[in-house]
Amino acid sequence: MIQAYTLFSGSSGNSIYIRDEKTEILIDAGRSCSLIQGALLELGTCLQNISAIFVTHEHSDHIKGLEIISKKFKIPVHMTYPSYAGGVSRGTFLDECTTPHDVVYEVKCGTLCVKSFPIPHDSEQNVGYLIESKGEVFGIATDIGHLTTTIVDSLVKCERIIVESNHDIKMLKSGPYPSFLKQRILSSLGHLSNVDCAKLCVYLCQNGVKGITLAHLSKENNTPALAFDEVRRALDSNNLENIPIRVAMPENTVCATE
Ligand SMILES: [Zn+2]
Ligand SMILES: [Zn+2]
Fold first, then answer.
1. Ligand lying closest to the C-alpha of residue 142
2. pTM for this one?
């Protein structure tokens, strides 16, 4: 059985821990080595047990701790060629631990099978992941500029998912961000709003997804209650009251599979 936990989530840094009975991996390492190690210790594990780190994209909130963690603990890193090149050009030096790969990629990692799929975003590249163990599939998609059929078709195969619910559009528009930043977030290469996330969740849950964790919430332009209520209302009005919704916290571990 797959267990997934958001360790950190949002613009201050992202990291997701996933395991089945035998294999443990991280998706992203966007906080410091000591913070990620601390979060893992609370779950009864540690970086020494991590078989690989899969990186969605090269923005600093996803790779802040990556270089130190991968070197110190000799953990293999998987990331796309463009994100690898982008990370290197911004000064993240990743040595032979790293396997740059194509956008659509599939690799066996112990007892887990990990597949990537493209997500539009204003990074060199961004990918989501499907993680499979014994026929069960868990999906992750964040930093979503806009929804594509690839994203929908990938996530619909999953039992449970972690998906971005970044901002409340009203809060963003009336909030303190400078207008270029508002435009960036609202653009087709920015982030997914609560309302678009809710529409996606309705479709996915009508087609077999059984649990949702909302992630990468904006601190300034969203609240956990707003994100939760938007998706809860949409699911309830489509007779999906039984689907559990969780909200990932910026600094605290949240289980995405209970
Ligand atoms: Zn990003
Ligand atoms: Zn991000």
1. 2
2. 0.97
Interatomic CA distance for residues 137 and 234, integer angstroms:
24
List, for residues 66-103, the tens digit of each pLDDT value: 999 999 999 999 999 999 988 877 777 776 788 899 99
Q: Which domains does the chain have, with CATH numbers?
A: 3-255 (3.60.15.10)
CA of 126 to the centre of ligand 2 (A): 10
Cα(116) to centroid(ligand 2), Å: 17
Output the six-digit token pair for 108.
Answer: 């066996």
Locate 68 and state its tokens. Answer: 């130190």
Q: Which ligand is nearest to the CA of 59?
A: 1
By C-alpha distance, which of 102, 141, 99 is closest to 119? 141
Ligand 2 midpoint to CA 198 (Å): 19
